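Changelog-adjacent note: as of this version, every example in the card shows the full chain rather than a window. The one below runs 523 residues end to end.
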Amino acid sequence: MLTELSRESAANRRPGADIVSQALASNRLGVSSVVFFAVAGAAPLTVIIGAISTVYAVVGNTALPLVYVVVAAILTIFTVGFVAMSRHIVNSGAFYSYISHGLGRELGVAAAFVALPAYALMQIGLFGLFGVVSSSIFAALGLSVPWVACALVAWALIAVLGMLWVDLSGKVLGVLLVAEIAVVVVYDLVMVANPREGVVSLATLNPAQLLTPEVVAMMVLAIGGFAGFEATVVLSEEAKDPKRTISRATHLAVLLAGLMCALSAWAMSVAAGPGQIVAEAQREETNLVFSLVGPHVPNIMITIGYLLFMTSIFAALLAFHAAVSRYQFALGRERMLPSRWGYTHPRTGAPIVGSITQSVLSLVAILAYWFTGADPLVQLFGYLTVVGGLGVLILMWGTSASVIAFFVQHPRLENIWRGRIAPIIAFFLLSIILFATVVGLGDVLGLSPDSIFNWAFAAGYAVLALLGAGWAAIIRYTRPDVYAVIGRGVERRTVFEIPEEPRPHSHAMAFQSHYPSDSRDLR
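Full-length structure tokens:
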């Protein structure tokens, strides 16, 4: 089959012919810009103001600072194998591409069918939070602005920025993120400098708390605060020196997000008092941080905090929009989606069709929630981001398995720690967290025990994965040329070059040396 395919391809195009309709804008992003995209996706200020207060209030356990440290450690171990694979595979398809290399093309397309709705749901859900927060800020200024109007303004800005140069978006995110981190640091210092009990307490850092039964549930909630760091590899084709840039940016993104969340969770317990932090969180909810720092800082600092809370959400919207549109580009480039999705803007290099598609879907969802009168905070933000986060966790779990498989096939590419030990540990730990997430998803969403949605979302992802694998199987027999390049298209060329006059003794060696991972599954 491969011989026939190669001869047909060689007859119709030159060696190394382009399989990409248009190329993304290459050599645009340095380490700092990629970190901005990744950390902005994790939205640290949004997590600190919203998620940490919620976990304290809902779970009622004070081990949260340590839980964030543990989750950051787990994701750091996952990142070891993840970025090791990024040094050998540069593809904006990220999880889709990695899984197709490690576990086969069918499972790779299955991952793509999970990734598209997962990232789309997370981005769309954030419009609900942005609308509510912005509306409340205007209300404090004496203006009555409906949440949908605020959401539509953000939507318009995201739609425009998504079509422009990726480094421009990186600069916007950089400004917003630096200001966001500065406020987080100031708030943390203020809270630690003003302890409730008159002395800085380390009680919430006691490792014995990790043995309590609530810790697993807290880890399920905490891991959602890191969603977005993995988007570094989505930008790999637009990065400067991607093999180094993506590795450094991914490690920095995990460490920065984990450090900020852990320190802020501890600082909040110091300011409220370890024994009172749960009650304070239940009373103040998302206003907890502002109530703790309010008595000790000028009002302007609280106002800035609210404004940066809003811009933090906007930064996450922009980061997830970039991730979704590039996933669509990768699939269009390799014709798993219609080829138009593989087009980029002729001047900016942005994935134009993918960006427009995500903008249209977002607009439809915003207007649908508004027309139906649904709660934008609970039913738009809460439901969609949690369900999207479940999809991202599934992708991380599948990718950790694919990293193991990839380096088992190619053991000489990395040392035993990066290629074997770290990926196996990550797979084991992520399996536990994924199982706990699927089992406890209904509790996270606040559903009744008999609700169909306790299991419907996980089942929905399973169905999507089966559809993706089935579609790849159909492509294998109906369009073998398309099947051959699933997850392989980078740098505007095919993954293997076809000599004009193949020589029996050199063809196999040339093929394997050009892309050794395909020697197994292209038979």
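Structural remarks: Confidence is low (pLDDT under 50) at residues 1-27, 490-523.
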